[in-house]
């Protein structure tokens, strides 16, 4: 057992207090008072859990005094002891005083001890409940504060001017369109290649709209079969299909009051197109296995890397669904159409990678950025992000050089649009055999030179050539002329 509970006994008869003290002293810390003034002084300085008060005292009844105690020390559990007044005569006063128990004299010692023990437990339960309520209030307040701060941070992150680009970027037209469309509660279809940043545009639309304080949920529609997709979006009831062991709330219901982003919407089946169209038309969902419909208030933003107008003309996509999704369309240009953004975007992605991995570097060499700008980036921003992370992880110098780039990127020559296509020289009609082999050889030579930091001795050894043979090939392909001296010095290679 822990520390004894403190009991205050108030009675104007000293002999009654002596009796109470003898009975209770083994189980409790007993304090006594013969007047209400003494009792108040004790309550003011001691931590009392239970008060035993006689009903009939001079000047003030026990119930009247305990009303005062309730007002000043509400946590103390109050018990009335009396042998002169029936409970029915003072029942209203007992309620007003919040009295826990009424015991009539003569009381049995075991009964009194049991009553006090229960009163002590009640005291501690009340304190635990009050503490829990306070903790819940603080936790709720903290959660609301954190949620509010997170929402404001998201709004800052996805504001219009946060999309990384240069002053003359083709992305500016897209951002201008986002700024015009975002405040209006209409559906939007975002088109663009995979990895070009369609979800960023969707988030910008949401966090700059009137629904910014509501949830934003996203689903890749091309990754799931119809039944699972229907369950993900609209929910299901337990037993609706094999594996449905409990009810599930769908994303449409979770996003009530906010935005649903449906990525790869061009990949859904004709059967699911019908179901989705019905939901968009009626604004109601019906979970799998349920007969009840639920109304939802959402804004739908969809995205696709397909040409849905062509799909509609070919009869592979419902025209009514297309027009329901595409109240307005926004095109995100691929990275190869905004090469001027690549250095700025690469630096921004590097800062993110530095924060994520905790590895500090100063940035990229100019040569590395030139190689990045020359490449066609079929995977768009996502591919660039992966490349930047790999360079950071593999780099051992303060500046990340071009030698850290993947071979496919190094084989793209700055300023030569002909070096911009994948697998150069292998496509049909690319020229004679000799011309195609020369094209491949030039790319291999340049990639090896950059990877070896323009050290011709290392490059010759790697390619199994003599220094004279390497120099002859470089001169034949014009590669001696493409390396500026400042790049050579910055890369740390020697020209020999």
Automatic annotation (TrEMBL):
InterPro entries attached to this UniProt entry: AAA+_ATPase, AAA_lid_NorR, CheY-like_superfamily, Homeodomain-like_sf, HTH_Fis, P-loop_NTPase, Sig_transdc_resp-reg_receiver, Sigma_54_int
Keywords: ATP-binding, DNA-binding, Nucleotide-binding, Phosphoprotein, Transcription, Transcription regulation
GO molecular function: ATP binding; sequence-specific DNA binding
Domain annotation Response regulatory: ranges: 6-120
Gene Ontology annotations of biological process type: phosphorelay signal transduction system; regulation of DNA-templated transcription
Any Pfam family matching the protein: Response_reg
Sigma-54 factor interaction domain span: 164-393
Sites of 4-aspartylphosphate modification: 54
Ranges that cross the membrane: none
Protein name according to UniProt: Two-component system response regulator HupR/HoxA
Organism: Thioalbus denitrificans
Taxonomic lineage: Bacteria, Pseudomonadati, Pseudomonadota, Gammaproteobacteria, Chromatiales
């Amino acid at each position: 057992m822990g520390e004894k509970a403190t009991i205050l006994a108030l009675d104007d008869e000293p002999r009654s207090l002596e009796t109470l003290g003898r009975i209770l002293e083994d189980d409790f810390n007993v304090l006594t008072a013969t007047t209400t003034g003494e009792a108040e002084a004790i309550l003011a300085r001691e931590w009392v859990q239970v008060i035993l008060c006689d009903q009939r005292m001079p000047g003030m009844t026990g119930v009247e005094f305990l009303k005062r105690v309730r007002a000043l020390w509400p946590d103390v559990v109050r018990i009335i002891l009396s042998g002169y007044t029936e409970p029915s005569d003072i029942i209203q006063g007992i309620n007003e005083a919040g009295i826990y128990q009424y015991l009539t004299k003569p009381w049995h010692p075991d009964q009194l001890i049991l009553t006090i023990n229960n009163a002590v437990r009640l005291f501690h339960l009340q304190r635990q409940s009050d503490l829990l309520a306070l903790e819940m209030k603080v936790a709720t307040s903290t959660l609301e504060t954190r949620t509010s701060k997170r929402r404001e941070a998201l709004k800052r992150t996805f504001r219009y001017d946060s999309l990384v680009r240069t002053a003359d970027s083709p992305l500016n037209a897209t951002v201008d369109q986002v700024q015009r469309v975002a405040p209006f509660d209409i559906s939007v279809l975002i088109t663009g290649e995979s990895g070009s940043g369609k979800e960023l545009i969707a988030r910008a639309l949401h966090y700059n709209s009137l629904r910014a304080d509501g949830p934003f949920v996203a689903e890749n529609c091309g990754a799931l079969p119809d039944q699972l997709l229907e369950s993900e979006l609209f929910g299901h009831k337990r037993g609706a299909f094999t594996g449905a062991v409990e009810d599930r709330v769908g994303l449409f219901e979770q996003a009530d009051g906010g935005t649903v982003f449906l990525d790869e919407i061009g990949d859904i089946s004709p059967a699911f197109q019908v179901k989705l169209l019905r939901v968009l038309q009626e604004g109601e969902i019906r979970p799998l296995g349920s007969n009840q419909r639920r109304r939802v208030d959402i804004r739908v933003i969809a995205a696709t890397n397909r040409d849905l107008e062509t799909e509609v003309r070919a009869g592979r996509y419902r025209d009514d669904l297309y027009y329901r999704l595409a109240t307005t369309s926004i095109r995100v240009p691929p990275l190869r159409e905004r090469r001027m953004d690549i250095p700025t975007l690469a630096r921004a992605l590097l800062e993110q990678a530095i924060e994520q991995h905790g590895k500090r570097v100063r940035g990229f060499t100019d040569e590395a950025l030139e190689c990045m700008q020359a490449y066609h980036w079929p995977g768009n921003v996502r591919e660039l992000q992966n490349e930047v992370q790999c360079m950071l992880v593999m780099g051992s110098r303060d500046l990340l050089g071009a030698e850290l780039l993947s071979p496919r990127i190094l084989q793209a020559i700055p300023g030569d649009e002909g070096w911009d296509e994948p697998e150069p020289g292998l496509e049909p009609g690319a020229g004679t055999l000799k011309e195609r082999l020369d094209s491949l050889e030039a790319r291999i030579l340049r990639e090896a030179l950059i990877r070896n930091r323009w050290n011709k001795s290392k490059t010759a050894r790697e390619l199994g050539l003599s220094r004279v043979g390497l120099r002859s090939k470089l001169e034949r392909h014009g590669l001696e002329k493409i390396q500026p001296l400042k790049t050579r010095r910055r890369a740390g290679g020697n020209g020999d």
